[in-house]
Write a structure and sequence with these properties.
The chain is α+β, with helices and mostly antiparallel strands. It folds into 3 domains: about 5-140 and about 285-315, no CATH class; about 140-270, no CATH class; about 330-480, no CATH class. Helix content is about 50%, strand content about 15%. It contains 18 helices and 11 strands. The chain has helices spanning about 5-30, 30-40, 50-60, 75-95, 100-105, 110-115, 120-125, 125-130, 145-160, 190-205, 210-240, 245-255, 255-270, 280, 295-315, 435-445, 470, 475-480; strands at about 165-170, 170-175, 175-180, 330, 350-355, 355-365, 385-395, 405-415, 420-425, 430, 455-460. Strands 4, 5, 6, 7, 8, 9, 10 and 11 form an 8-stranded antiparallel β-sheet that branches. Strand 5 (about 350-355) and strand 6 form a beta hairpin. The longest helix has about 30 residues, at about 210-240. The termini are far apart. About 35% of the residues are buried.
Length: about 475
């Protein structure tokens, strides 16, 4: 065989197949991929995503090439992995979950290493292969918990400083001023970025396991504690007599200066804990290359899986049925509800009074990228006015004997006024109190080519009573046929 023919077969053909696979996957998850890029570009929380893959590449380049024979994964392993990957991709699309689709997209990187060089080589490069997943915008669910933890730490320090203070949820009041631990004060952006950097640093410059574990733990604890201290100092500045200075201090420290102080502290510790490069690694041949070779059948399995996923996704789209609207139609912007719920893309909105409770209904006949029953664009209350005091599970027994599971929240405002909020979701005649179960029901029904939407129900009351009297006035079968 001519040398050029051999090079073409061993390099250009596999590279072309890989490019085709990447284009195919992007065609299936282009909305989720674009959403990821937009979040990198528009939010401080996930801006680190731009640097994750380059950092992973640096980690891989700095590791010596292992003295391991390249052994592409056998076909049965390829089929197993690709089958699982296809299921994850399909679930992500059916559930309209960008994070799951983004997970499927990024997981192609370690998959290709396994298919190309085998499990032993993939294990050798496990640190950079794990790091690449940190480019996925993920962690918003931690914000309420971080708000509560930050408020707890600030309250502890204020009590230790003998400051007169009252707390209502995420609101902290001292004689000089009132403060709210907002989403921007949760410290989520510093926590995620610092944690990512700590993983990169520990696996690049440390070899001992206990040092790596300790340094990564510091990457979690240092920004968490520092954020609580920051909020405490802001409140103390107001307590010392200058509320305007506290506001200016907040804007100054919350930005990059605060972030760099945290990183400087971590790097100072990390610099002292660096391990010398082992002699064997120093002597490794930097020019050594792993052979670039794929089994043709491995690429074929992936190439077949992508269009099959696309066909199934097309079959599962645009399926819906009529759902009754209960109560008077309302505008998404003009709600009489003091909690100000908002479902801007719903097909129909209504609310009605039921035994002292406001019943709010958001109907979704189908879903698409911009219209989801469960999504970040929706809210049950205005977070600038209300905060969560506690959460619990409850059951709403209706007039027709149906037990509706609900998630019951107690909300509190700055004045101390409390509201009860009960939430449940109806999907294809079934009820779910949690968003995860509701998403699972949506996936199940879409996979069976049934429903493609659902109804979100919220019941609001300023009274602190039970749901039993209200439940006796409604019919679950009419609400969720």
């Amino acid at each position: 065989m001519h040398p050029l023919d051999s090079r073409f077969n061993n390099l250009l053909v596999p590279a072309g197949c890989l490019l085709a696979i990447l284009i195919g996957v992007l065609a299936v998850v282009h909305d989720a991929a674009w959403s990821m890029v937009v979040l990198w570009s528009t939010t401080d929380t996930y801006m680190h995503g731009w640097f994750v893959i380059p950092l992973a590449a640096i980690m891989a380049k700095n590791k010596p090439v292992p003295n391991i024979k390249s052994a592409p994964a056998p076909i049965w392993q390829v089929i197993t992995i690709v089958s699982g990957w296809s299921v994850v991709l399909l679930i992500g699309r059916l559930a309209m979950l960008n994070v799951v689709q983004q997970l499927a997209l990024i997981s192609l990187i370690p998959m290709m290493v396994i298919f190309h060089s085998g499990w032993r080589v993939a294990w050798h490069y496990r640190a950079p292969l794990i790091l690449v997943f940190f480019c996925i915008p993920f962690g918003d669910f931690l914000i309420p918990w971080l708000q509560s933890v930050t408020a707890d730490m600030a309250m502890f320090l204020l009590h230790a400083s003998d400051v007169t203070v009252v707390r209502n949820g995420w609101y902290i009041s001292i004689p000089a001023a009132d403060f709210r631990v907002a989403e921007a004060c949760s410290g989520i952006n510093f926590l995620i970025s610092t944690f990512t950097v700590s993983i990169f640093y520990s696996f690049t410059y440390m070899t001992q396991l206990h040092k790596r574990v300790t340094f990564i733990a510091l990457g979690l604890l240092v920004p968490l504690i520092a954020n609580g201290i920051r909020v405490y100092l802001i409140i103390m500045i107001a307590h010392w007599g200058n509320v305007e200075a506290a506001t200016g201090f907040d804007h100054l420290v919350y930005g990059w200066i605060f972030f760099f102080v945290i990183l400087a502290a971590l790097f100072t510790i990390g610099n002292r804990w660096q391990d010398p490069i082992p002699e064997l690694e120093k002597e490794a041949d930097a020019r050594k290359k792993l052979p670039f070779s794929f089994k043709a059948n491995s690429l074929a399995v992936i190439a077949v899986a992508i269009p099959l996923c696309s066909i199934l996704l097309d079959l599962a789209s645009n399926i819906h049925r009529d759902i009754p609207v209960i109560g008077e139609p309302i505008s998404s912007e003009l709600s009489i509800n003091p909690l100000r719920p908002k479902f801007p893309a719903a097909d129909a909105l209504s609310q009605t009074m039921v035994d002292g409770w406001v019943q709010y209904q958001a109907v979704y006949l189908n879903e698409n990228v911009d219209k989801k029953m469960i999504g970040y664009q929706n809210r049950w209350f205005d977070g600038n006015i209300w905060s969560i005091k506690n959460k619990a599970k409850d059951t709403l027994v209706t007039s027709d004997g149906v037990h509706i599971p609900v998630s019951k929240w107690t909300l509190v405002g700055l004045s101390g006024k409390e509201y009860q909020l009960a939430i449940s979701y109806c999907v294809g005649g079934e009820w779910a109190a949690s968003v995860m179960k509701a998403k699972a029901l949506q996936v199940q029904h879409k996979a069976l080519l049934k429903d493609d939407g659902g109804v979100a129900y919220g019941w609001f009351s300023s009274a602190l009573g039970t749901l039993s009297n209200m439940g006796a006035q409604i019919s679950a079968k009419k609400m969720c046929p």
